[in-house]
Amino acid sequence: MRGKNRCAALLALSALAAPASAQLRGQEPLLRVSDPAGDAHGDGSAQLPTGPAIAPEALDLRSFEVWPRGRFLSFRTEFGALQNPWNAPAGFSAQTLDIFIGTRSGGESTLADLNLRTEGGGWQYHLRVTGQGARWTHASEAPAAGVNAPPDEDPPSPALPPAPQVRTEGNTLVIDTELPRGRYAYWVASSVYSPMSAGGVLVPGGSGPFAVKVPAGHTSVPVPLDVLAEEASPQPFNLGQLAPVGRLNDFRPWLLWGLGLLGLGLAAGASIALWRTPREEVVKKLA
């Protein structure tokens, strides 16, 4: 009996330790987007830090996948390489990965502190992943330009998913979240990680070995050096706008449209009924 129990325990541990690729066998991703290799240089003029040296492959997005995980979602983001110049516990620390998620119409159009704006919709959830951990932000927590809340008025705290579990598989970051399963719009960006900044991203400009050098006169350039897009183009960096990937299933506009049609139909029906009513009955009803 003890031998059987021991075998059962070993089989259970083996199942837990099985790689995610084996557990996902037989399933299909809800979304898969490939990104061109060798385009982790912003608009083409940025130079990466030399001390510590950051390899361009460590910032180079190669693919982004969204997988179902029961009632939740798992993100798989592949890079050209994973590098750990700051000896982070997660095994990578060259890049900061930002994933903005639009779960419904509307939302925030400013992509946090990346000096980029959305093109085609807005986001409700922002997930920032570094080798030191991952954290969620809700769009309602994003600072509004030129708007200061009264000091005695605390904004309501939005419900955020728990911190996700992040692990590496080769050159891929696997992020298991408790974001409810659905078809959403995504904006994904890769920036140089900086342990010296509050946000964890290295803003281009400046001098010295640990700096993203840009040509003189290039001010307020986007922070990321690579953004998720199926075609390599400097347009997001030149215009400061990033288009989403994925498809947002938000039925509320259609519902409002249907309610509007229903209202028009009821009004038309009432008008027709009134028109068909004999004139004497109408006078009596109005009297």
Brief synopsis:
With 287 residues, the protein is an alpha+beta fold.
Task: Report on this structure.
Helices cover 20% and strands 25% of the residues. The chain contains 5 helices and 13 strands. It has helices spanning 2-17, 20-23, 235-239, 252-276, 279-286; strands at residues 31-34, 61-69, 72-79, 95-102, 117-118, 125-130, 133-138, 165-169, 172-180, 185-192, 226-227, 241-242, 245-246. Strands 4, 6, 7, 10, 11 and 13 form a 6-stranded antiparallel beta sheet that branches. The longest helix has 25 residues, at 252-276. It is globular, with a radius of gyration of 26 Å. Mean pLDDT is 82; it is low at 4-23, 145-154 and 250-258. The chain crosses the membrane at residues 254-275. Residues 31-135 form the Glucodextranase-like C-terminal domain. Residues 32-51, 144-169 are annotated as: Disordered. This is Glucodextranase-like C-terminal domain-containing protein.
- The percent range for strand residues is 15-25%
Topology as a string of helices (H) and strands (E): HHEEEEEEEEEEEHEEHH
CA-atom Rg in angstroms: 26 Å
Number of DSSP-assigned strands = 13
Q: In the CATH hierarchy, what is the class of the largest domain? A: Mainly Beta
Per-chain topology:
Layout: H1 2-17, H2 20-23, E1 31-34, E2 61-69, E3 72-79, E4 95-102, E5 117-118, E6 125-130, E7 133-138, E8 165-169, E9 172-180, E10 185-192, E11 226-227, H3 235-239, E12 241-242, E13 245-246, H4 252-276, H5 279-286
Parallel strand pairs: 5-12
Antiparallel strand pairs: 1-2, 2-3, 3-9, 4-6, 4-10, 6-7, 8-9, 10-11, 10-13
